[in-house]
Amino acid sequence: MKVRQISLISCALMASLWVPIAADAQTKQPVEYVNPLIGNISHLLVPMFPTIQLPNSMMRVYPMRADYTSEYYGGLPIIVTTHRESSAFNLLPQTGGQLALSKNYPYDNEHIAPYSFDVVLDNGDMTSKMAVSHQSAIYEIQFANSQTPSLVLAAKDGGIKCGSNWISGWQSVGGRVQSQTKVYVYLEVENAPAKVGIVEHGQINASKNSADGNLVGAAFTFAQGTESVRVRYGVSFISEEQAKANLRREITDYNLQAVAAKGKDIWNETLSKLNVNSSDDQALTEFYSSYYRTFERPICMSEDGKYWSAFDNKVHEDGGTPFYTDDWIWDTYRAAHPLRTLMNTKVEENILSSYLTMAEQMGTNWMPTFPEVNGDSRRMNSNHGVASLADAICKGLNVDKKKAFEYSRKAIEEKTLAPWSGVKAGWIDDFYKKNGYIPALKPGEQETDPNVNRFEKRQPIAVTLGTSYDEWCLSRIAKNIAATDKNKKEAKQYASLADKYAQLGLNYRHVFNPETSFFHPKDKDGNFIMPFDYRYSGGMGAREYYGENNGWVYRWDVPHNVADLIRLMGGKEYFVKNLDQTFAEPLGKSKYEFYSKLPDHTGNVGQFSMANEPSLHIPYLYNYAGMPWKTQKRIRQLLRTWFRPDVMGMPGDEDGSGMTSFVVFSYLGLYPVTPGMPVYNIGSPMFPKAEMKLSNGKVFTILAPNASTDNKYIQSAKLNGKEWNKPWITHQDVMNGGVLELVMGSQPNKSWGAKAEDAPPSQDF
């Protein structure tokens, strides 16, 4: 079988790409490998959605249904305002005299690409095609019978207006955060409608051109026998007028094929920055589908140099720096932000600048944790925005370091550490500052801190470990400022702060149980909670002690100081034994009982959960204990077991690039175990050759010419032609461009990367 060459074939873009890997190879564009339906049936919780969108763009849609098994569409989507939410507005093509503001459509022959989709509706009576731009989109709807066709645009909790060939409107954006956020639409049709007006009691009221309410709609009715209707529209978070301007700027006619072709070119240009070759179509599909997912969020909110911010409910000038939001940082700091730092540094700088701006706009100067279109929903635990800032700063990105330090410090020390809360610090936080850990409630003890969410609980181990890491990240920012500040007095102050927060970064030690080598919840008196089961104790989602995952997963949640974790466990031999047992320990109960308690903890290999982000770094930890070959074996096992190019090919929730960026890195053979430390662990590359076209214009190449399903083990390595025996490389090694060459084999080379001095660096790096 010929090796397939993945390259962009648009003539306009060829000049910017490198020489093809094999000139006579069969060609296939990267976007043609993308399968948006991967994971659209979930194993337990929320599925992935087949998103149609240009990279990081405001205009996002997916079919209006629960998942791939849904029997009906609920209409045609206009815009998804927040990740995993339903569409705002609803486009309803209909025939006959009675018009509905909501409707279920049987559907068939659905085809979805990242930039377009088409579907047959109502058992063949209608066919819809759609393509997107950045802030606008276009539909073409074919009607198969000779009845009178109509189009209804419906809005929930909003308003609608209409004119001769246009409909505009607004809809409130709901969610956990109460804000004044609205989304606006301006839509127009190419065909002159025979009738236009507000829908009332199933009919068009042509004497009425506006309506507000819980469910309102306007409609066009076309002449009998009309077979095709073409619709274009723009969206905005600023105004209906801006929605119209966005449309006119991006889509100047009704040529759907041109919009789709442009979108395809944009995706190919974007995806081809990672240029890989392989004869394994399944691997290529999984790789490029995962890479496409990393552009789903955050989204750019800037519209003609302005943007709406839910963080102060105002429209702002962006000053030339695009504003981004919709990012669950608890998930994405681990691999999505580091991937973007490599592949699109400027976008990452703009995203981080947006987060600093949000902190100011909220009036607290607290870094956000879950910034969404309608504000910061403050979900999950810890303050991992500081990790993304620290990672960017230590890798040389242009970030306001002093603001980054101050807003991160305030978020950790002034806002409560109680999960899912955005209020000021309280009793739990005072206890943490004094004792270095979050106290757990004794069995039967009632909650006394009003900041604690009744369902999410204290999550004392998760919060203690997460905050220890955040404080270490804060020390990294301070250390960088101290090293670069020309004011000697300020530099000295920041050096002192770096030492302070580096010490606080060791707080995880307070909850380590040396008798069991687990992180074990303690009560306020300093006693370990007993009796205790690291698999099941903690109630629903183990939240009374951990968070979504059990003690076996959080056993490894010290990414900034793995060397110290090895020491705490008694040395490398015990550390590896404990790692091995994590992947071997049985569930202990039936699957029904296990998942009824831990529904996020799916994708199991033993007690390891491939389905949840706190596990992502764990298979790479063997590198720190002198056994990189076990990392190589484990990574291949996990990729082949849990990630597949089918509708159930995702082991758990994919929180908008949190997990798929792990897949991208791992397929390449690298992984950022510790954001905040400019280092990548080496795993087991899946491709014979991969080229990373970096933000600085240089190319970093990973060669593993004999890599295969069996040949997963590194026999030897060279970095830029020189022997390389470390299972890690630095960020600068990558950004300098060059070649990492790995000789692969079917049997482990247990001596490669095994020396103590070969281990990846830990806290004091």
Automatic annotation (TrEMBL):
Residue ranges of every copy of the Glycosyl hydrolase family 92 N-terminal domain listed in the record: 33-236
Domain Glycosyl hydrolase family residues, every copy: 242-746
Signal peptide, first to last residue: 1-25
Organism the protein comes from: Segatella copri
Coiled-coil segments on the chain, per record: none
Gene Ontology molecular function: carbohydrate binding; hydrolase activity, acting on glycosyl bonds; peptide-N4-(N-acetyl-beta-glucosaminyl)asparagine amidase activity
Subunit structure comment from the entry: Monomer.
Single GO cellular component term: cytosol
Cofactor or coenzyme needed: Ca(2+)
Alphabetical UniProt keywords: Calcium, Glycosidase, Hydrolase, Signal
Protein name as annotated: GH92 family glycosyl hydrolase
Superkingdom as given in the UniProt entry: Bacteria
GO BP annotations, alphabetical order: carbohydrate metabolic process; glycoprotein catabolic process
Pfam families with a match to the protein in the record: Glyco_hydro_92, Glyco_hydro_92N
Assigned EC number: 3.2.1.-
